[in-house]
Amino acid sequence: MVAIENLKVRNMIKNHCLAKSISDVAWYRFREWLQYFGIVYGVPVIAVNPSYTSQNCSTCGQIVVKTLSTRTHTCPHCGYIADRDENAALNILKLSLKELANTVGRTVFQVSGEIPLCNA
User: Fold this and answer.
1) Residue 24 in contact with residue 35, Cβ under 8 Å?
2) pTM to 2 decimals?
3) Sign of dihedral through CA atoms 111, 115, 117, 120?
């Protein structure tokens, strides 16, 4: 399984400070390739809602508000300390596992390049 955030790249490039960097690394194209190779190799690629993935504590679930410049997640509720990105990655993993569990029972059929999802 590959777990990613369902980022709205179009909205992100409206930020003039980040637009060039985001365009340079071709985030949207990267996501397209992930999804393509997920289909080719039969690996689920799950895109989760990015809301609060870096704000929620991955241990206790409480919201810990921080600015973008704050790089360390320190939870005052449970005492968990981790890099901000590590905390977000754990939250993304948990959300994607829930999503994967919800999709069990769906069958994927591949017919001439099309991949419709059918409820089983």
Assistant:
1) no
2) 0.75
3) positive
